[in-house]
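Reviewer comment 2.1 asked that we show a complete input and output for one of the modelled complexes. We chose the calcium ion case, as it is the one discussed in the main text.
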Amino acid sequence: MSTANSPIVLVIEDEPAQLELLSYNLKKEHFRVLEATDGEEGLLVADEAQPDLIILDWMLPKLSGIEVCRQLKRQSRTKQIPVIMLTARGEEADRVRGLDTGADDYMVKPYSVRELVSRTKATLRRTRPGSVGETISYGDITLDADQHKVHRDGEVLRLGPTEYRLLCTLLERPGRVWSREMLLDRVWGRDADVDYRTVDVHIGRLRKSLYRSGQPDPIRTVRGTGYSLDYDV
Ligand code: CA
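Response of the prediction step:
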């Protein structure tokens, strides 16, 4: 079963049988799956739900897959989301291969669903390691996403579920400055009824949980912007 920490995959595909097959197989592998059946809807859902990965069909009603991909990669809110494009043989595949779409990977139809699921996992291991059970380390902090455990300097830390998700997100890109808005989207989800103050409160709790006497505070506050996992190790 998928859990609140399972990665979210958005599938944008207009053929019902294909969509159902993909959805079924991804859910079986514990992904949370969102579906869209045309390009416009796909863009909307991507912006609203901030999925961890998008599987995007080339031939779509309203807006083609290639145009959807371009728009996703142009928007600051969606450009980090990896896209796996599904294409027919021939010219389409050549153009995706040329990467003029910004797609991160592509598969030529008819593709093997198993291969697509395994490429989905491989992409997420690179982009969202905490979401697929990988162990991530930064300095003396280690997060074991499989065991759901966090260590600092060899000692097990007790973190609340929100603090755990916050740390998971910060650990993906040490040094990157995350705005409160980005953290809200990623940790609470877009629809959550919370404000920036909530982010500050949970960052405070995370700091407290990570505190070890004699060790530096690993979270840097970037005035007027947000937070970053950043310290001299
Ligand atoms: Ca199609």
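The CA atoms of residues 133 and 145 lie 4 Å apart. We note this here for comparison with the apo prediction described in Section 3.2.
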